[in-house]
Amino acid sequence: MRSLRSRYGEDAPALTLMAAKDRDPFLVLIACLLSLRTKDEVTDQAMGRLLKRARRPEEIAAMPVEELEKIIYPVGFYRNKARTIKEVSRTILQSHGGLVPRTIDELLTLRGVGRKTANIVLTEGFQQPGIAVDTHVHRISNRLGAVKTKTPHETEKALRQVLPQQYWISYNALLVTHGRRICRPISPLCSQCPVQAYCGRIGVLRSR
Ligand code: SF4
Q1: Whether residue 186 sits in one domain with residue 95
Q2: What is the dihedral of CA 29, 31, 33, 35, to 10 degrees?
Q3: 125, 160, 186 - which closes a domain
Q4: What's the CA-to-centroid distance between 73 and ligand 1, angstroms?
């Protein structure tokens, strides 16, 4: 973790940078929902437009869905996502007193929220321990040999056993950046890797 942090410490993914700025669980949740299958810069720009118009659940819940679609376009699946963030806002108002719930189980009851999003809201929004596992985290944790798992959910459970809790919050951001820059899905750049000495390179058939 120290090697990754010294390489990528100032280069966190967009959601982490946004959370560091706002520390607002609701905005982290909305950004996370917009970011699914969407490039960072597109999510950033959509969030920038949305923030000029609305920042609170009551504001988004009251917006016409067509206006939301227009604001968040061109994020992937923008029509579905407009409906999702409107419904999530309404649920937070009606069932949670206007506050984003603070437990994974409650977060998972919100429309469109899976384990990755729930963990990101916990870690980036509330600074509570959690491990958000996406394809980068799943792939790299297995390549390193830290876990031996088949699904992101299994990886999350296994990491909770082997990773010291002090690293949980930063693990996602560091591995996502590492996965984009060095430990790419196909032919990772092992010769430039800051953790090569600790890596089992499990399942890596081709590298540069
Ligand atoms: S040594 Fe290669 S496989 Fe292992 S973490 Fe680094 S880039 Fe990924």
Answers
A1: no
A2: -150
A3: 125
A4: 36
